[in-house]
UniProtKB/TrEMBL annotation:
This is Phosphoserine aminotransferase. Homodimer. L-glutamate binds at residue 43. The modification N6-(pyridoxal phosphate)lysine is found at residue 200. Its cofactor is pyridoxal 5'-phosphate. GO terms for molecular function: O-phospho-L-serine:2-oxoglutarate aminotransferase activity. It catalyses: 4-(phosphooxy)-L-threonine + 2-oxoglutarate = (R)-3-hydroxy-2-oxo-4-phosphooxybutanoate + L-glutamate; O-phospho-L-serine + 2-oxoglutarate = 3-phosphooxypyruvate + L-glutamate.
Length: 373
């Protein structure tokens, strides 16, 4: 078992210890090349082999269909909020489903490039629910529909992606899957484009993954920078400009780790998905059973990755919240502070978080309640 603390950061987040050790071991000399990966030409044989394997492993893990291109980009999720409308909207209509802070931000940014409208929102419930499908007002001629499939701050997750065709909409679905990509499988038949920063489930900050259906390439607005034109990036195999090489290398090791990963008789993404389900159930059960802590999200759309929680009722004071966080750190449970916009606590339990980490947190919740409750 690991001797490192359990790290509940929302991102940049914990990486598998095995991967960090491998990175440390290869830091000065990658596989006899005499170079660190950071020192290699991105066009040389060594790095080309790293990038090719990373892409192939990711494609295999997520069963990405042949008509989707995988792009390694930069700028994170926030840059994609501009890059996607510049590539897909042609300056026309785009519809947003707002289910939390990140999709709200995406809709606002898109207004700079397109006629962006909110098709549905769960702001009335303070983002503790998902907007019911029956309320979605999709425009027939929208270029795409955007949603955030896992809201990192609000802790709300689409457990199933909507079938837009069944809603009478032919537009492609764009998903911001930053904070749960690779935590479960993706139904590609329902998606036109998916994007996410790597710094949660995949690797270091600085790398952004984009999965884009081929027919969506080649429609960029003239103001779109070439380095952000999906077609240009795809044709250059993500090497139009110098890609974030170290990030791609670490991500590649995470993909290999996930391919080896087994749990409950399963392997790969199916195994990590099962472990993520088990971890989330354990933590939500403890919160629901507690008279001192609460999670406010409706049961059917609770995130498996990001679990915001609060001290409830009379216990919800700044002093007790601070005491909780200080005590957590003493027990080697790190970075449990909630996002500044919502306060409270948040446990992000991404792929690299072992079951033991959640068990340790649950034990702490019980001890804290016994002491202060
Ligand atoms: N979307 C989601 C769902 C996120 O969680 C984040 C970052 N926490 C972003 C977008 C913004 O990503 P970045 O900071 O990589 O630009």
């Amino acid at each position: 078992m690991s001797l490192r603390p359990f790290n509940f950061s929302a991102g940049p987040a914990a990486l598998p210890e095995e991967v960090l050790r491998q990175v440390a071991g290869e830091m000065l000399d990658w596989q006899g090349s005499g170079m660190s990966v950071m020192e290699m030409s991105h066009r040389g044989a060594e790095f080309t082999s790293i990038a090719t394997a990373a892409e192939a492993d990711l494609r295999e893990l997520l069963q990405v269909p042949a008509n989707f291109r995988i792009l390694f980009m930069q700028g994170g999720g926030l840059a994609e909020n501009a890059i996607v409308p510049m590539n897909l909207s042609k300056g026309g209509k785009v519809d947003f489903v707002v289910s939390g802070s990140w999709s709200k931000k995406s809709a606002e940014e898109a207004k700079r490039y397109a006629d962006a409208a909110v098709a549905a929102s769960s702001s009335d419930s303070k983002f503790t629910t998902l907007p019911a499908l029956s309320t979605w007002q999709l425009r027939r001629d929208a270029a795409y529909v955007h949603l955030c499939s896992n809201e990192t701050i609000d802790g709300v997750e689409f457990h199933e992606l909507p079938d837009l065709k069944a809603l009478g909409c032919d537009a492609p679905l764009v998903i911001d899957c930053s904070s749960h990509q690779l935590s479960r499988s993706i139904d590609w038949s329902r998606v036109g484009l998916a994007f996410g920063g790597a710094q949660k489930n995949i690797g270091p900050a600085g790398l952004t993954l984009v999965f884009v259906r081929e027919d969506l390439l080649g429609h960029a607005m003239s103001i779109c920078p070439s380095a952000f034109d999906f077609k240009v990036v795809a044709e250059a195999k993500s090497m139009y400009n110098t890609p974030p090489t170290f990030g791609i290398y670490v991500a590649g090791l995470v993909f290999q780790w996930l391919k080896r990963f087994s749990y409950a008789g399963k392997t790969g993404v199916a195994a990590i998905e099962q472990r993520n389900i088990d971890k989330a159930q354990l933590l939500y059960a403890a919160l629901d059973a507690s008279a001192m802590f609460e999670n406010r999200v409706a049961v059917d759309c609770r995130s498996r990755m990001n679990i915001p929680f609060y001290l409830s009722g009379k216990f919800n004071t700044e002093t007790l919240t601070q005491a909780f966080l200080t005590g957590a750190k003493e027990r080697q449970l790190l970075q449990l502070k909630g996002h500044k916009s919502v306060g409270g606590m948040r446990a992000s339990i991404y792929n690299a978080m072992p079951l033991e980490g959640v068990q340790a947190l649950v034990a702490y919740l019980k001890d804290f309640e016994a002491q202060y409750g």
